[in-house]
Amino acid sequence: MALALNKTSLKQRRDQLAMFERFLPSLDLKRQQLIADLQRSKRIQSETENEIETLLDSQRGLFSLLGASEQDLSDLVTIEERTVTEENVLGVRLPLLGEVRFRVKEYSMLAKPFWVDFLVELLQKMALLQLRLQNERTRVSRLNDAVRRITQRVNLFDKVLIPQAEKDIHRIKIHLADTERAAVVRSKIAKAKQNRGELTMRTV
After folding, report:
1. 61, 119, 124, 202 — which has fewest CB within 10 A?
2. What is the reported pTM?
């Protein structure tokens, strides 16, 4: 739409610029807070990944026993129930892992090797860590999307809307100044003509 070069349009663009400049700092602050939350979630995710790796490394001896065993250990530990809620962080809905309950298949203490108890404990720890990791990856993914969206909005205000409003205001002001100067010149010319006319009439 063509820019109207008048005082009404100038006021509208000034009002818009004031609104953009008022809105941008709060938007940028929200972006910074989301980036901080994203970095924190990435750190927690990395810590969980390291915890899983450390746990696996510490149980290599148990895994060798498992490889040599003929015991049926299928469905030894299963997740019976898990609770996932959501929290609202600066308008972003993020999952929160709550209580996790496991079901352990009954087995005879005499019929099973001694290390089955350790295996049950390990499986529960590993399942809980994997659930935490899955939860944290979801949080990181959603925060990544939120940071990308709000960065686009900050850039829109900072690099497009505000500069365009400033450019429009400058253009309107120049046009109004030119128009005012032209009006003054026309007025002086008209007055000069009028004076010449009056002088001619007096001479006659």
Report:
1. 202
2. 0.78
